[in-house]
Amino acid sequence: MRITGISTHVVGTPWRNLTYVQVHTDEGLTGVGETRMLGHTDALLGYLKEAEANHIAGSDPFAVEDLVRRMKTGDYGRAGEIVMSGIACVEMACWDIKGQALGVPVWQLLGGRANASDNRIKAYANGWYTVERTPEAFHAAARAVVDRGYLALKLDPFGTGSFELDHAETLRSLSLVEAVRDAIGPERELLLEMHGRFSPATAIRLARELEPFQPSWLEEPVPPENLKALKKVAEKTTLPIATGERVHDRIEFRELFESQAADIIQPDLGHLGGISEMRKLAATAETHYVLVAPHNVGGSVLTAASLQLAGCTPNFKILEHFNDFADAEIKKVVKGAPEVVDGYFTLSEEPGLGVSLDTEAAAEFPQQQARFDLWAEGWEKREGSKERTR
């Protein structure tokens, strides 16, 4: 079997563009992969066009390791977010093809079920707080998440905070967390996101104030580039630290593991080079007693691929899910889209990734000039820009 070529499809919303890549073969099998790029979608498409000619066309889709190696190192330049995201889309599509050809789900090819004895993977909701930034509005929105059956949810309550957070904004942010904890009760998981906003001193101060609300983790409390700053925060709080969504090569996690500064890593399958790279990273994390909770801000193909990893990873914690609350209508572009029921996904038994792209439905959501600025007032509403590029 050989790859004959790829086709790309961009599904657009005002705040995010989702790029789907179909990999076609000479035996009629087609696999699909997905990533979500912020502000670099056209650059990704340009890279994939060149990579198709240089590396992808003519390759054996079963030889995933070889294809990833050539795409990552064959152009000699150091691979960053764009290249690793392109690799991820093609790589997960190849796993999809392999699973279809062999008639088994991808998780079976990766070692079989490891932590889903009841065939379920826990989910947490994100993208639900697109409301006014008041305790009353956040309380009502959080109740809607609970009513939908979720057992965990995440929020960034800190507005446009950057490095510092003044006293008034601190009180306001704490009031939002208090309202959400009251809405969801003590038994559900509350996850707190900081988006790398703060200096270590501010993050430590806020962590101390947040401890009474018992969050399951504090995510990216400082910018991701400085591991010593992250370690300083980790050493001054009892809260678990989560980070990793903006790291695009598993090798770059080495120093993070050595520092013991993180309890949970959050690599994005769509940016880290795909399923194989994530599986290797998860195994390394296990040797450091670190849990894996992938960043997952894409659509249903990326979710399906992340679930394949979840099924075979002993140290998998929980999977993020946006699409019940943010752009729920785009779920129709994927046939067999995973759904959350009573707080859990069900691990698919279908061959490959268990999903397929509906290209006609995808065409209903053309690429947009998507804009998402976490330092702009009202970013949590995820309204973005409504101007279309094509």
From TrEMBL:
Q: Where is the Mandelate racemase/muconate lactonizing enzyme C-terminal domain?
A: 135-240
Signal peptide annotation? none
The UniProt entry, under Pfam families, shows: MR_MLE_C, MR_MLE_N
Please name the Gene3D superfamilies in this protein's record.
Enolase-like C-terminal domain, Enolase-like, N-terminal domain
Supply the SMART domains for this chain.
MR_MLE
Concerning InterPro entries, the annotation shows: DgoD-like, Enolase-like_C_sf, Enolase-like_N, Enolase_C-like, Mandelate_racemase_C, Mandelate_racemase_N_dom
The record ties this protein, via CDD domains, to:
MR_like
Lyase: is it a keyword of this entry? yes
- What keywords would UniProt list here? Lyase
Name this protein carries in UniProt:
Mandelate racemase/muconate lactonizing enzyme family protein
